Request: fold
Amino acid sequence: MELKRFKKVKWKEQANPFETKVSPANTFGFIGELIDIYKEYSEERNHGNVLKIDHQMLDCKALDEASMRNHLRVPEYVQHWKPYNKERCDELQEKLDARGIRKGNLHFHEYDAEVQEFIFHYFISTKAVYNFILVPDDEDNCISRWFLLFAPKYSIIGLVVNAITCNLLDIRCSDNRWLCIMQRNMSATLDNLSIRVGECNSFAEMSCYLMSIMFLFSERSATNLDIWRLHLRGAHAILEKCDTLYSYISNSGERDIQTENAIHMFCFAKNWFVSSETIACLSAPNGGAVKNISSLRKLLGYTGGSPEDGFLVGGFNLIKCYSQLLTPVFVEVILFIINFKSTTGILLTGSEGILQDLQYSEELTSLGENLLKKIQAVETQELDLLSIKDHVLRAYMKACNRAYCCALKIYIWSVFLGKSVYGIEVQRCVQTIEEQLVTMHEIMRFGLCIHWPLFIAALCAPPGNQRKVLMGALKSISNNGTFVAQNTVNRVHSYWDIIDKGGMIQEKDFDSITM
Reply:
């Protein structure tokens, strides 16, 4: 596959940091490769759908042609976006028959004011396609605020919101009314990325593109392994360049509203990336995108600078979904595993541990026991959540933190201490994670945040009803828009099939990213 090339832009310090070019060509080679692969994948996936479109939808052609002529302009339809209102979202969903229940063979287009208003409202109401846990809408609707602020200036925002929202709507709809918008905006989005991402000339614009890439490639394409890893690599390349400007801007005097929001949006996206990279390192034999140990240590230790930067609430990070006190444990575990991988191979095995080949040593045992003590201290600490008014969210945060503590303990018992996954220590933690699902009955509302603990617990669950409960929770995440979770569903089924027969999982057959 030919790698898309971007025009080279020389790094140049200027008096005004907001006009600094930040993108040498080689930085965005990953993005170009990612876009090429995504286009191929989308064409293959959509081929069957296109053949099924009713002839009444062919009047989308004029809109397609208009869109192609203006795809780098800021979409005019963003003028119809309004601050999120749940009642209005419900009203529009009913009026538009968004799921195509009452009537079929219709199509919508983005230049209809109510259709566009609903698309934006639906995007916000689904918590950005279920990828993140955010503070409740009535407390701090930051995503809505950021996009309303930047969409009139940067076209990528409007294109991405329409593409991924209509993707999710199309899956749930009985006809193809959302398909035209999705395909048209996705095509324009990829063209926009190809042309513009390497030439962003301000910190605010770069933050918008980072945020957009985060959302865009966290949807259906994420079921493709190569795309998801390239996604992480491309996002990391942008983050490295943005960091230089971020340090300069965040330490410089007074800031206007746009700059303040760009900083928060950048920190939010960075927290998302840190969360993705952390779980990728723990979940996949080939790990995540960052291979440099010193860079990884610095990255994983990132905690954000304010409560809004990733939503640090009472020492709890709402994107990472665990207490910040667990961060040193994650960093220590991951750095050890990365170092181990660099010196020897790793095999996944049946009931004798998630990972095999770690030879017993007093040093390893001591490290594992010390890590367990740190986790226990975090697990028993009372989270300061007095500022959270939503009692469901408070309960969910506590349950998430406990689930992550248990998942980490399973990992350490299995990997560092060589315990069987069917042993009593591990099974107590599996049961505890399962019990948290009672608290997390609104898993559709919060989505991906409990993904990794469920994955770890499912791997260790013995045959029986417990497996059904955990798999049901994983499927509910995938079925509600978090397509990357489908990787987990497939991997867990594969794992069960092999270990139940007493076999060994081969690393090459088990590599996939899970967030």
Observations:
- The longest helix spans residues 257-283.
- The radius of gyration is 23 Å.
